Amino acid sequence: MGEREVEIYLVIMAALVLVLIIGIIFYIFQFRQRLMMHRVEKDNLIKQHQLDILHAKVESHKDTSAHIGREIHDSVAQKITLASIYLQKLLFDRQPDREAELNMINNILSNSLQELRRLSRDLTEDSLGSLSLQELISEECRNIRQSGVCQVQFDAKELPDIPVRIKTSLLRIVQEFVQNSLKHASCQNILIQIGLMNGNIELELRDDGRGFDLNRYRSNGIGLESIRRRAEFIEASCEMASTLGQGTSCHIVCPLIKSESDVI
């Protein structure tokens, strides 16, 4: 190999070594850049996760507070209202022998206190888990009939097992509608129908009271708003109708969810 060829060989080798060194330096630089970006992304993910947890806690507190407020209004307040209406009826009748009716008032108030205690225990109600929706509504109807304020007709078709979330919301809708009818409608009869239709739970509520202008109370009626929110909570449709002098109706269509895990 001549001197000229050796020089060319050395130049080529030097160039290759230089390219290799440049490639290694570039790779190390890129690696460090990716490593830094990965650390930044990881820190951002950790911060975002912490923010999500904080946001979830705040939303959970808000939802819990709103739920407690709705439960107190729709459950405990309803029973106390019923007791008040019943007491007013006794005072109006002015009959001396009212021991049975007074016992009824005492039972209603006792149930209200029991329900308030259940709300304080993480809003857990054993009766809602152990009793069917038909049984729970039947109990409400029985209380109304015994009060003598008005007549209640309850027609129920066979229903499958219903998750507690849906059962609670539908029961509260019934209670809200009934109490609104008793307090404001001066009705003589209330009709409650429930059954399964095309895979949906359908609930029909009607009274023969004085009725009202639905548009007037749509925005500021706490009772109507409570019914709508209950329906939205279980992704159900809610149709309210009322005519002056002809009564009020409410039609609820709720998709049937097979298991409690489906609604969490």
Task: Provide a quick synopsis of the model.
The chain is an alpha+beta fold. The protein is built from seven helices and five strands, in the order H-H-H-H-E-H-E-E-H-H-E-E. The protein has helices at residues 3-93, 99-120, 126-130, 133-147, 164-185, 214-217, 222-233; strands at residues 151-156, 189-197, 200-207, 237-243, 247-255.
Task: Looking at this protein, list some descriptive labels.
single chain; 264 residues; alpha+beta; Heat Shock Protein 90; 5-stranded mixed sheet; 5 strands; rod-shaped; disordered C terminus
Q: How are the SSEs ordered, and which strands pair?
A:
Blueprint: H1 3-93, H2 99-120, H3 126-130, H4 133-147, E1 151-156, H5 164-185, E2 189-197, E3 200-207, H6 214-217, H7 222-233, E4 237-243, E5 247-255
Parallel strand pairs: 1-2
Antiparallel strand pairs: 2-3, 3-5, 4-5
Helix pairs in contact: 1-2, 1-5, 4-5, 5-7
Describe the protein.
The chain has a domain at 150-264: 2-Layer Sandwich (Heat Shock Protein 90). Helix content is 65%, strand content 15%. It has helices spanning 3-93, 99-120, 126-130, 133-147, 164-185, 214-217, 222-233; strands spanning 151-156, 189-197, 200-207, 237-243, 247-255. It has a five-stranded mixed beta sheet with strand order 1-2-3-5-4, with helices on one face. It starts with a helix and ends in a 9-residue tail after the last strand. Mean pLDDT is 77; it is low at 258-264.
Per DSSP, the total helix count is 7
Proportion of β residues? 5-15%
Question: Largest sheet, if any?
Answer: 5 strands, mixed
Terminal-residue CA separation? 82 Å
Q: Tell me what the CATH architecture of the domain at 150-264 is.
A: 2-Layer Sandwich
Which outline best applies?
Answer: rod-shaped
Order of helices and strands: HHHHEHEEHHEE
Strand order of the largest sheet: 1-2-3-5-4
Per DSSP E runs of 2 or more residues, the count of β-strands stands at 5
Contiguous runs where pLDDT drops below 50 for at least 5 residues: 258-264
CATH H-tier superfamily of the domain at 150-264: Histidine kinase-like ATPase, C-terminal domain
CATH-assigned fold name of the domain at 150-264 = Heat Shock Protein 90
What is the helix fraction of residues, given as a range?
55-70%
